[in-house]
Design brief:
The radius of gyration is 42 Å and the shape is rod-shaped. It folds into four domains: 86 residues, Immunoglobulins (Immunoglobulin-like, Sandwich); 79 residues, Immunoglobulin-like; 73 residues, Immunoglobulin-like (Sandwich); 73 residues, Immunoglobulin-like (Sandwich), CATH 2.60.40.3080. By secondary structure, the protein is mostly beta strands. The strands form eight sheets. It has a five-stranded antiparallel sheet with strand order 2-9-8-5-6, with no helix packed on it. Strands 1-3-4-7 form a four-stranded antiparallel sheet, with no helix packed on it. Strands 13-12-15-16 form a four-stranded antiparallel sheet, with no helix packed on it. The chain contains no helices and 30 strands.
Length: 347
């Protein structure tokens, strides 16, 4: 609600040309701007006594003349000066200060995301400063607003993803201000390393992992999905065939999981040397040997699934595995009843 202030300042000045100026008086009534930086203030100069024919000159603090009548509207905060002269040369001067509210400001609390991509952020406005009118009628408008909660008393918002949120505060008199608030997310928790070494028979397999991002420190857990056995280390060795689930949990309880399936390589039975080049490879490989006989060639993943088959592979012939994703694979060469398995890394 706009407040009307009646101000009569004590330093009213009267310039009297003669005794006819006696009883000549000036009063200024004023209305302050309703909000910060608003130009809706006004003042009216009222004289009593005098000899009629009053001429009003109203100026601002820079000396700009605002009006020749006794009323001026659309005023900002500041000092204003009134000079009045009647038709006998009697003069009056007075001034008034229009005082606007300070700009609306807030204190607020932020809860940032605990884990990346989990919408757990929140913002709460703790205190609104310089609001006019009834504090209980302050309205809050959020953008974006995943909860759809706007209006009087809606001073908090939750379930937020990371990003920038705008809050517009409106008080009872329509004064407002807009604030941008950032909700942050920790870096994504990722595997810096996740791999295994196949066993060459028995229990010589190894799985290993390490974490990055998230919120350190990390806890590591390996679980044998076949037996339920587990280990709390980055590396677990002495393993036989089987699939092992690796879990990394950070200080905030965020976690990631992946599975490594360890396969044991058969003891080579081919009675000649075989070389695979390059290994690791970006996809194109060549297998060389001193044998001139054709071989059966099978490429399997570590779960044993067959990805490539050639019944009559000729040594020295290039093979393109570029369509197969990066990883560790078993290359199986067979001739008659003899079979050898080789580890192939595709990058």
């Amino acid at each position: 609600m706009k407040k009307l202030f009646l101000l009569t300042l004590s330093f009213l000045t009267l310039h009297c040309a003669n005794s006819q100026c006696s009883g000549y008086d000036l009063t200024i009534t004023s209305s302050n701007p309703i909000c910060y930086a608003f130009s809706d203030g006004s003042l009216t100069a009222i004289t009593t006594g005098g000899n009629g024919g009053d001429i009003y000159t109203i100026t601002d603090s820079l000396g700009n003349q605002l009006n020749l009548t006794n009323t001026v509207n659309n005023l900002l905060e500041g000092w204003y000066y009134v000079h009045v002269e009647d038709n006998m040369g009697c003069e009056l001067e007075d001034s008034v200060y229009l005082d606007a509210p300070d700009q609306i400001d807030i204190d607020y609390s932020i809860t940032n995301l605990i884990c990346q991509n989990i919408e757990s952020g929140s913002i709460e406005v703790d205190t609104v400063y310089n609001a006019t009118g009834d504090y209980n009628f302050i309205s809050y408008y959020w953008a974006p607003n995943p909860n759809g909660m706007n209006g009087v008393g809606q001073d908090s918002i939750g379930g937020l993803a990371d990003g920038t949120y705008s809050i517009t505060i409106n008080d009872e008199n329509g004064c407002s201000n807009v604030f941008d608030i950032d909700v942050l997310s920790p870096p994504a928790l990722t595997f810096a390393d996740f791999d295994f070494e196949p066993c060459s028979g028995g229990t010589s397999g190894v799985v290993f992992m390490s974490g990055a991002g998230g919120t350190p420190d990390y806890e590591y857990t390996w679980t044998n999905l076949g037996t339920g056995d587990s280990a709390s280390n980055t590396t677990w060795g002495g393993l036989s065939d089987g699939c092992y689930e690796g879990t990394i949990t950070d200080a905030n309880g965020c976690f990631i999981k992946d599975t490594a399936c360890v396969s044991c390589l058969s003891v080579a039975e081919l009675d000649f040397e075989v070389s695979i080049y390059p290994n690791p490879s970006s996809g194109l490989i060549t297998i060389n040997s001193n044998s001139q006989e054709n071989m059966q060639l099978i490429l399997r993943n570590m779960n044993g699934a067959e990805l490539y088959f050639d019944e009559n592979y000729l040594f020295g012939t290039a093979i393109d595995f570029s369509e197969i994703r990066s990883g560790i694979y078993i290359l199986q060469l067979s001739q008659d009843s003899k079979t050898s398995n080789y580890r192939l890394i595709l990058e």
